[in-house]
Amino acid sequence: MKKKFLNLSFIILISLLSSTVTTCLLHMSNGIVKVTNKSSGDIYVSVADITKRIQINEEETWEISWRGTDTYDGNTEVAAYNVSTGNLIGVSWFNLNDGGTEIFEVHDDGVYRIISYPEENNVEKWHIKTVDNSGEVGKYTSIKIDSNDNIHISYHGNHDNLKYAFYDGNEWKIETIINDHTVYGYITLILDSNEKPHICYDDNIGTIKYVFYDGNKWQIETVDYNNTFNVYASLALDSYDYPHIAYCDYVYTGLKYANYDGNIWHKFSLEEQYSNCRSSSISLDSNNYPHISYDGNFGLTYLYFDGSGWNEEIIDSCWLDTYLVIDNNDYPHICYQSSDYYLKYAYYDGNTWQTEIIDYCWDSPYCSMTIDSNGYPHISYYKEGLKYAYYDGNTWNVERITTNENTGKYTSIALDSNDKPHISYYDYSDDYPNWNLKHAYFGLKRD
Fold first, then answer.
1. What is the pTM of this model?
2. 378 - beta bridge partners?
3. What is the residue-wise DSSP string for 346-405?
4. CA 342 to chain centre
5. Distance between CA 330 and CA 322 in Å, rounded?
6. pLDDT tens digit sequence for 40-82
7. pLDDT higher than 80, residue 22
8. Alpha carbon distance 288, 311 (integer Å)
9. Predicted confidence band at 273 (pLDDT cuts at 50, 70, 90)?
10. CA distance 219 to 280
């Protein structure tokens, strides 16, 4: 049975007779607590996952501490104590996913209370919304944002169906594209020059499928038949809106590449037979030439076509996840998990490859990456919850968005026109089958 907690955003001890009141805001968001003097704006303390003491005035010190997290709701209890007396000042439950704000009022007679304070809508922060809660939905998400900042997400529906969600600025519209219970493995969504969705996926018998919306209805094509599972299909569109797909056939012919020229599909085997091909990712440069990263026999492998032939480079060790992006200078950027379980970022600077460690991830990080208007990378990934890393030109910044370990898998990231991140992911923190597709975004709160 799902646990429920009383939200103790009310008076613990209350006094209506005090003459002097110091009002403080207790704000919690993304695992961080900040206590602020409401009148002066002074921040007393910011804490994350530790016990911290703060000096409220010359006579009094508070101690703010975590008291536990509800496994189901993701709520964390925040308690404040008077350190000198040991008396409990107040307790309130916050949801780490949604953030929250409370007011602590400090009275001159030593009596305290907590009262509710409405969330400010003009503050940029992380917000999390449920997109689809129809049950056991949201694996293998892929997100894109169009020029109007409308959001497109493709993902697994329940019973191995292919679903597509579209946010038009007011509401989510959801449809099931493939309803034959055969959708299996990775999905890639790309928008064409008319902002129509194109999707590739593999089915449960290893067939590579390509789906696109022609303005009237969905069209479905079979690209290749592999007779194997986990083909890690990845899709890109060229300047003519023609599809290019990289995928793995690790049982027979290794890495494969297919492209459509407007009339027929062309298919190529790029790696030797029985190669250890896993987790392919494709992107195109300004000449429409394909670039592919994948986990091969010798680790993280980067292949690119230069107009006359294919070139191969071994960059680092690799364990499954890779994601490739080509920037405006036609330089490759790759996020991946190394064989020693680090989430890493590799990029070519024009002369050589550079690699950087982002985080340690013993589980698959399901990493996804995009590049902002300044050429800086943004990465979403899973590590005991949903996390987000971005480079600001000087250093990497890592943020935890959710804390429940049953949230954050199958992530995909995209940026809107203001370079604000949007992340789709799978949430299975509730009782089966109430597993949902979620959308996390940073910015002002939407209706």
1. 0.76
2. 370, 390
3. EEE-SSSEEEEEEEE-SS----EEEE-TTS-EEEEEESSSEEEEEE-SS-EEEEE----T
4. 17
5. 18
6. 555 444 433 333 444 444 445 545 544 444 333 444 455 555 5
7. no
8. 16
9. low
10. 24
What pLDDT, in 10s, does the model give residues 368-378?
Answer: 999 999 999 99
* Average pLDDT of the chain, as a whole number: 79
Amino acid identity of residue 247, one-letter, is: Y
CA atoms of 233 and 279, how far apart (whole Å): 8
- Which of 134, 119, 87, 78 has its CA nearest to residue 106? 87
- Measured in degrees and rounded to the nearest 5, phi and psi for residue 163 equal -120, 160
Give the residue with greater pLDDT, 251 vs 194. 194
| Listed residue (324, 315, 322, 314) closest to 343, CA to CA | 322
Decide: residue 40, CB within 10 A, 0-12 exposed, 13-18 middle, 19+ buried.
Answer: exposed
Full strand arrangement of the beta sheet holding 421-427: 125-132, 436-443, 421-427, 407-415
CATH 2.120.10.10 correct for 125-443: yes
| Angle, alpha carbons 348-398-429 (nearest 5°) | 120
Q: Is 382 exposed, middle or buried (0-12, 13-18, 19+ CB in 10 A)?
A: buried
Label residue 418 by pLDDT band (50, 70, 90).
very high
